[in-house]
Amino acid sequence: MSKNLNKNIIESLKSTIIIGFISISFILIVDKNLKDEIAINISEVNTQVEARIATYINNNMSKLESFNSYIKYDIDKYGSENAKQIFVDTFNKSNVSNSFKGIGIINKAGYLIYENRKIYVGNSNYFKESIKGKKYVSKPTKSIIDGKDSIIYSIPFIINDKIEGVLVGFSHYEGIALSLKQSIYSYKGSLYIVDKYGNVIIGNEKNKEGIKTLYNKIKYLDRGKEKTNISNCKNPKLGIFNNERIYLYYNYIENTDGWYLVSITPINKVFSSLTNIINISLLTIFIATLLYVINNYKKYVKNKKALRKATYIDSLTNINNQIKFKIDCKKKLKNAQDDDKYVLVSIDINRLKFINDVFGYEEGDNLIKSIGEKLSILKFENIHGRISNDIFALMFKLDKKLDLKTTLVKLHDYINIVCSNNSDLNLKLNMGAYIIENTTEEIDKIIDNANIARLESKKVKDKPYYIYDEALKNRISQEIIIESELKKGLESGEFKVVYQPKVDINNEKIVGAEALIRWNHNKKGFISPNIFIPIAEKNGNINLIGKWVLEEVCKDIKKCKLKGEKIVPISINLSRVELYRSDLIQSIKQTIEKYDVEPELIEVEITETAALNDIEYINNKIYQIKKLGIKVSMDDFGTGTSTLSNLKLIDIDILKLDRTMIIDLEEDKKTFLFVKTIIKLAKKFNFKVVCEGVENNKQVDILRQFNCDMIQGYVYFKPLEFLEFKNILKEQYQ
Question: Which of 14, 193, 235, 434 could serve as 202's disulfide partner, Cβ 3.0–4.6 Å?
Answer without folding.
Answer: 193
